[in-house]
Amino acid sequence: MTLQFSARLADRDVDVDLNLASGETLALLGPNGAGKSTVLGVLAGLIRPDSGRATLAEDTLFDLPTTWLAPHRRAIALLAQDALLFPHLTVRRNVEFAPRSSGATRAQAGAKADEWLERTGVRPLAERRPGGLSGGQAQRVAIARALAAEPELILLDEPLASLDVAVAGELRGMLAEVLVGRTAIVVTHDALDAYLLADRVAVLHRGRVVEEGPTREVLTHPRHPFTAELTGLSLLTGVRTAGGLVTDDGLALGGTPAVPIPAGRAVTAVVRPSAVMLRTGVGPDGGAGIAAVVTALEPRDDLVRVRTDRLTALVPAAVVAELRLTIGARVTLSVPRGDVRIAPA
Ligand SMILES: Nc1ncnc2c1ncn2[C@@H]1O[C@H](COP(=O)(O)OP(=O)(O)OP(=O)(O)O)[C@@H](O)[C@H]1O
């Protein structure tokens, strides 16, 4: 393992262990206040935990209470949400700064800066000053500066959050390219970032890692409500029955697990909202289905996420209009059993 990290902070109620192999990118996901920035701050040396130990390659970052490596002596680059470039230096000088401060000659630092400005797509801006850059351009320069330092570990704190959707999309592609083979931790609220940038994800909730694993596995089979919410899936917990499961609130659903699970065992079930069918009133099958009450309607493009007290359905806006759905409306939901993915809890 390149990174082994373990830290506890009593006043923030954070207790986190993380391991990262060399060249691996980890997405750190979690709701506001979960502790993501705290973890990055401790790694960067800006926040001192009460106890813990962390090693990065050959370096001991901290081993408390005895050892604490100062931030500038850690081979770590932290990229914040805002680019935080030096306003009085040109773009090239900003990027040269990191190799210069680790002892490179001006010529070496210049060559390194040009290489990274090229790779991040901002070489033509080399002589400009940060004040004249767009948000996306400034963030590209910040990425070039972080990587020109050739850190052992790069930390990215929501690097795309302050950019508009089109610019964020372009930057995401560039980031995916430059992060290949690099050891990195990316804090994000976005499942797409995790899919495109990260080999593995760790989900933080109330200062603890609540699930962790390969990106696709965790995001398609969430075990924690936050992960399910992030990926837009409905997560149910309950007990395995012969035909499927009974949820904790008494809903019986047909379904088949990927691996055999004996009846009576605690299980989770994941349902894609687009697989949930919704109707009002009693259907032609005499009312079979799940009685539910609409709790929220969230339009997005020409689809509407219809949240209910049971499952969430994703339906065309035209259907919502036709059924005259409003909050509080009584509806009947059904899900094909093949779309109820059951896994051990
Ligand atoms: N400067 C601080 N001093 C003390 N406690 C703090 C400080 N900053 C954050 N906290 C607390 O530490 C916990 C973790 O917060 P943190 O900012 O790390 O979460 P986060 O997951 O990064 O959230 P967000 O997504 O909102 O940035 C929270 O309980 C928060 O209230």
Individual helix count: 9
What is the CATH-assigned architecture of the largest domain?
3-Layer(aba) Sandwich
The H-level CATH homologous superfamily of the largest domain, spelled out, is: P-loop containing nucleotide triphosphate hydrolases
How would the global form be characterised?
globular
Q: What multimeric state do the chains show?
A: single chain
Query: Count the strands?
Result: 22
Bound molecule types? adenosine-5'-triphosphate
How many domains, in number, for the residues? Answer: 2
Low-confidence stretches: none
Please state how the strands of the largest beta sheet are arranged side by side.
7-8-9-3-10-11
- Can you identify the CATH class of the largest domain? Alpha Beta
The average pLDDT score comes to 91
Helix content: 25-40%
Return the CATH topology of the largest domain.
Rossmann fold
Radius of gyration: 24 Å
SS-derived structural category:
alpha+beta
